[in-house]
Amino acid sequence: MARLNVLLLAIVIACALGVVTSQHKARKLFVELQKEKDRAQQMDVEWGQLQLEQGSLAMPARVENLASRQLQMQMPQSGQIRYIRIGSGAAAQP
Amino acid sequence: MNYATATIQTSGQIALPAWRSRVLFVLLMTGLVVLLGRAVYLQGIHNDFLQQEGDARYGRVVEIHAHRGMITDRHGEPLAVSTPVESVWASPGDVEISSTQISQLAQIIGMNPAEVKSKLATSREFVYLKRQLPPEQAAKVVKLGIPGISLQREYRRYYPGGEVTAHLIGFTDVDDNGQEGIELALQGQLGGKAGSQQVIKDRRGFIVEDVASLRAPKAGVDVALSIDSKIQSLAFREIRQAVERNKAKGGSIVVLDAKTGEVLALANWPSYNSNNRDKPGMAVLRNHAVTDQFEPGSTMKPFTIATALEAGKIKPNTVIDTSGGVFTVNGRTIHDTHPERFLTVAQIIQKSSNVGTAKIALSLPPETLWHGLSEDGFGSLTGSEFPGEAEGKLRDYRKWRPIEQATMSYGNGISVNLLQLARAYTVFANNGELKPITLLKQETPALGVKVYSDATAQAVRDMMETVVRPGGTAPLAQITGYRVAGKTGTAHKLENGKYVNRYVASFVGMAPASNPRLIVAVMVNEPGGRDYYGGLVAAPVFSNVMGAALRMLSVPNDAPLDNVLQAPGEVVGEEV
């Protein structure tokens, strides 16, 4: 009887220690998870900022300005446009 | 114990009275029971108190921010995006700061040191030093390491389009709630609902355990508008140039997809930069194209003619006696700038004859005319759901006097907003079907209401094509490679119930006329230069925007490329 009690006591203590360690591990993992979540949010934020930056760099007014000022491009005059009709095989004369 | 008894026994002294050990035993046991009872009481029966104390030390409720939805154009280009910024706040009681630190801090947050000092001098627990600082600057504030000064994450809305889309998109306030424009109209969809979560935090402030989710956060939904940002930018640039060139008070432009009723562009000048926190006055903030009503003038005529055609009163080639450009009703005289003895119905549209239109209108019962105009959407909202949209004014036909019926037929005594006017022209672009207006991208075109027969719509469109030919009021609206149908308008402004010699010049048109794809409506308010006719002020804007937009959308040509004809003399002015 006494030996059984000692055995049970040992098992109880082992379980208790097990609970403590697993709780500790769970908390550590949880902290890890939080960090990853924060990182995900950070990336989300960065994504938003990049989108915004792309949006402002690609504004039609800016692109047009660069094309005409820096690259000396211009809108084609009506005579310079040639329309190609699919199926007819030959370029339509303007 | 054994030892003690043994000593007593061996020494032969009398044993201590048995009650002493019993008393001791009872006392110890009582103590134990009391302790046990207290433990059970605290942990089992009455545990709220300890729970509360524990929660107060480690348990925290954290807010989970919900993102405000993004607004994009129809191709997914961002027009409004929320990104986080940091707000610097202080609890003045805890702040320990040296004067050099004050000037450093002031420099980072862009304030002068005296201002910072006065903010810190309050007795409040919490004071914002600077709201919405970019993350890089916020990092510098943290580096200063001043006790009592902390950051708070907030979200700020950015508008890459700035002044180009300002009136349309509107803006949000500092707490991310929509205040104007689309931001206000779609607040319910865009605005997220912040959630909250109960957690356990350790000494260093890290969350170590999720206890319970009190409220799940609900992120705002992204919204795709019907706007095409390229056409928007083009329309904005052109209306701005036109307003500046004509020294006008302002101008508005609307581009519609003729088939679906989607708004592809909507712009006003003067505009403002919606990214600035300091907003201009209400006059500049208003989206004039939607919230203002004006008397449209001759752009109204096609609807009068169409109603008469539909009623079978006239045919396109019916000759109307325009009595030399003078016509008196109720003692008031209606004039034409270019008096003619006789004009066909088509010529009445081409030359924009007030007398002709008035005579046709008076041949109709008031109810028929009212019904026709009302069915075209005048006097009712367009369905755009834009906040503060003006309804326009179409008076009850039972109160019309003949002179009113006559002037209304050419757009005086009736008021519209520009979006409403553009929408009404969908009846001519869609074989008589009036489309509802939408600012949101549609997957399937909305169903319209049939107002006129195919034949009537086609006939009026043919007449409106003559407007841009030499001899019409708007040859400047011609576009290389495309047939154009449209109508000019020039109206006196109404101030305190009196017409004054200031004007609203407008042009509404559609192209390609063989199968209209786009409708462009242009309105220029009080042109201050030499020209004030719609055909001279608004028509060139139409031509530039429509031509470029059609090319952007690769709409096939429906005319040879040498179709633009020069008017022989001056552009035909219209009576206003």
TrEMBL record, chain A:
Keyword Thylakoid on this protein?
Answer: no
Identify the GO cellular component terms for this protein.
cell division site; plasma membrane
Q: What is its main location?
A: membrane
Gene field: ftsL_1
Q: Name one GO biological process term.
A: FtsZ-dependent cytokinesis
Q: Where in the cell?
A: Cell membrane
Record-linked Pfam families: FtsL (PF04999)
Supply the InterPro entries for this chain: Cell_div_FtsL (IPR011922)
**Protein name, as recorded:** Cell division protein FtsL
Q: From the record, what ranges are coiled-coil?
A: none
- Lipid bilayer topology: Single-pass type II membrane protein
Q: Which UniProt keywords apply?
A: Cell cycle, Cell division, Cell membrane, Membrane, Transmembrane, Transmembrane helix
The answer, when asked if Ribonucleoprotein is one of the entry's keywords, is: no
Automatic annotation (TrEMBL), chain B:
Domain annotation Penicillin-binding protein transpeptidase: ranges: 251-546
**GO MF entry, a single one:** peptidase activity
Domain Penicillin-binding protein dimerisation positions: 64-209
For biological process, the GO terms are:
cell wall organization; division septum assembly; peptidoglycan biosynthetic process; proteolysis; regulation of cell shape
Keyword annotations for this protein, in alphabetical order, are: Cell cycle, Cell division, Cell inner membrane, Cell membrane, Cell shape, Cell wall biogenesis/degradation, Hydrolase, Membrane, Peptidoglycan synthesis, Protease, Septation, Transmembrane, Transmembrane helix
Q: Where in the cell is it found?
A: Membrane
Q: Which SUPFAM superfamilies match?
A: beta-lactamase/transpeptidase-like, Penicillin binding protein dimerisation domain
Q: Name one GO cellular component term.
A: plasma membrane
Transmembrane stretches in the record are: 23-41
| Protein name, UniProt field | Penicillin-binding protein 2
Organism per entry: mine drainage metagenome
The lineage, from the top, is: unclassified sequences, metagenomes, ecological metagenomes
